[in-house]
Design a protein that fits this description.
The chain has 25 helices and 20 strands. It has 574 residues and is an alpha/beta fold. It starts with a strand and ends in a 6-residue tail after the last helix.
């Protein structure tokens, strides 16, 4: 006979799970007790928040579910950060947790009990709010089937987080030899199939896009999720279209490509926004078109009555959600874009002529001018944030991964970091929690063995800086750039006058000493040349490097980067 925890770990191995981001506690200890004998690495973060981000980033990078394990009350509190990001950024993730079950005492409100009885916490309700699906099995058979279903649902359709609450003795009881209902082999139970649009919809979309004089593709996070990079480029080159991206879609096409036009949105590139407005046909690929992407639906930005809109999304609810779509391509982005490219030969008779014109390449080249402003060349100290980003750009090649936090830093990065490769830029843009970039960078380094640069403000970095120690422990060497203005910069710059908003100024923390205390290298940079030297050292180092980059706090992000379309609606939102 086999105990449930042993069978569960065997299933994880069968499903190809490489690592579990886990913090011991409660009945999850029963699971972690079996992992030392398995071919699965355990990455133990400093807390469940960091572990949840690491698991989410693993899922984003690999499109295989990142596995998070931990005790229920903390998975349902600290650990919701990564789950929320996974839900809104479509990252596959499986959470294995527990309810601190106390058996016959559960109705008497025992310590940490969270199965939902009176006097305790209701973990199922918490997980119901942040996951795609969750299960609360009460027997060995249910436990094994629930874990299999969690992996299946995490990657089915639009990816996202799922969770299983391991209940009491059900994790340690013996698995029946011939359970009814049966428990199937994990790899068979978890299998999913790609969906594809109908031939009729593809033909209609191909004709509409081929007939356009100014076709533009808006590429979103769905391109990352489907790994549809080649297909995106093929559609752009086949139809002669400019490719712009959403914030989460950044690096779905190299931003140095002849047809790349930059990032749209209320704090995106002015050039990219203008290209969308000038277009007569838009292909929206894997992008839900949230208010920040659409400049809060500024009337002159996207105009369904004047522009043909083809919306490709894996979820039919998203196609035409924000703007009425003329054609919906419902399916996996790779399948939809491949079909659209293949349909090109049977499209409009004028298509061959249009595919060869110069509008797209010339317009994209003009739009890419938004990647550079005079401040990018400024030699002053403290360092202009625009110049800081350009120094980062000099050490970013086609393989280097950049993770960006929330706040001003992410907008400086998306505007002035011109990514040279695909799948190289990832930001906290689902729920947009601060503190995401640092554990995400550690996860990326562990997962890919590539050069990784994590960029955060001093506020966001401080929230999760203990992740630096995990990088040391795991033997990976990402570089962490702290754009330090000793404040909560984005909120501080919302003030009408100094002191209008409480809580925006920070104590000047010595991040060099912090880094050294964790066993990493620490470097302070106050000039562009010092930053350039520090970045070069970080790239060559065998241990993590924390760069405390002192930036000019008077450079107002919103004032400089607010798009003209965003201003059109009053700039009322973030």
């Amino acid at each position: 006979m086999t105990d449930t925890n042993e069978a569960l770990v065997a299933d994880l191995e069968a499903l190809g799970v490489e690592c579990v981001f886990g913090y011991p506690g409660g009945r999850v200890i029963e699971l972690l007790d079996e992992l030392p004998d398995a071919d699965i690495e355990v990455v133990r973060p400093r807390d469940e928040r960091e572990g949840s981000v690491m698991a989410e980033m693993y899922g984003r990078l690999t499109q295989n579910p990142g596995v998070l394990a931990g005790q229920g009350p903390w998975i349902g509190s600290l650990g919701t950060i990564g789950q929320m990001e996974a839900r809104l950024s479509s990252s596959p993730m499986v959470v294995l947790t527990e309810a601190s079950e106390r058996g016959n005492y559960s109705t008497l409100a025992p310590y940490q009990q969270s199965r939902g009885d009176y006097g305790g916490l209701d973990l199922p309700k918490i997980l119901d709010a942040v996951t795609k699906e969750h299960w609360f099995p009460r027997s060995p058979t249910e436990t094994l089937r629930s874990v299999q279903l969690a992996f299946k649902h995490a990657t089915a359709g639009r990816p996202g987080p799922t969770a299983v609450i391991l209940d009491g003795d059900a994790i340690t009881e013996e698995v029946p030899e011939d359970p009814i209902p049966p428990v199937w082999d994990a790899d068979e139970q978890v299998r999913n199939w790609d969906s594809a649009p109908t031939d009729e919809d593809v033909a209609q979309a191909a004709e509409a896009f081929a007939d356009a004089e100014r076709p533009v593709v808006i590429a979103g996070n769905g391109i990352h999720a489907a790994h549809a990079y080649d297909e995106l480029r093929e559609v752009a080159e086949t139809y002669g279209a400019v490719v712009v991206t959403s914030y989460l879609g950044k690096s779905t096409i190299p931003e140095t490509h002849d047809l790349a036009g930059g990032v749209i949105g209320s704090f995106g590139h002015e050039g990219a926004n203008q290209v969308v407005s000038e277009s007569d046909a838009l292909l929206v690929a894997g992008c839900r078109m949230n208010p920040m992407d659409t400049n809060w639906q500024a009337p002159s930005f996207i105009r369904p009555d004047e522009q043909t809109i083809v919306h490709a999304d894996i979820d039919t609810r998203n196609a035409g959600w924000v703007y009425p779509a003329d054609v919906g391509l419902i399916g996996d982005a790779k399948e939809s874009l491949r079909a659209l490219a293949e349909a090109r030969s049977s499209a409009s008779a004028d298509a061959d002529e249009r595919a060869g014109d110069d509008w797209a390449s010339e317009r994209a080249e003009s739009a890419r001018e938004s990647f550079r402003v005079p401040e990018c060349e400024d030699d002053g100290a403290p360092i202009k944030p625009q110049r800081a980003v350009k120094e980062i750009e000099t050490v970013v090649d086609e393989e280097t991964i950049v993770t960006a936090d929330s706040g001003n830093n992410r907008f400086w990065l998306l505007n002035y970091l011109q990514t040279p490769g695909i799948r190289t830029y990832f930001g906290s843009g689902g729920v947009g929690g601060m503190g995401w970039a640092t554990p995400a960078a550690v996860s990326a380094a562990i997962t890919t063995d590539k050069d990784v640069i994590g960029v955060a403000g001093d506020g966001g970095f401080t929230m999760t800086m203990t992740s630096v120690e995990i990088a040391v422990e795991q033997g990976v060497a990402p570089t962490f750039v702290v754009l330090n203005d000793t404040s909560l910069g984005m909120v501080r710059q919302m003030q009408d006058a100094e002191g209008d908003i409480a809580g925006v100024e920070f104590h000047d923390t010595d991040f060099v000493k912090v880094a050294e205390g964790f066993g990493a290298e620490g470097i302070r940079a106050t000039t562009p040349d010092e930053l350039a030297e520090a970045l070069a050292k970080g790239k060559d180092a065998d241990v993590p490097t924390v760069i405390d980059a002192r930036i000019d706090r008077e450079e107002d992000m919103a004032e400089q980067l607010q798009s003209s379309f965003y201003a059109e609606v009053g700039g009322l939102h973030e």
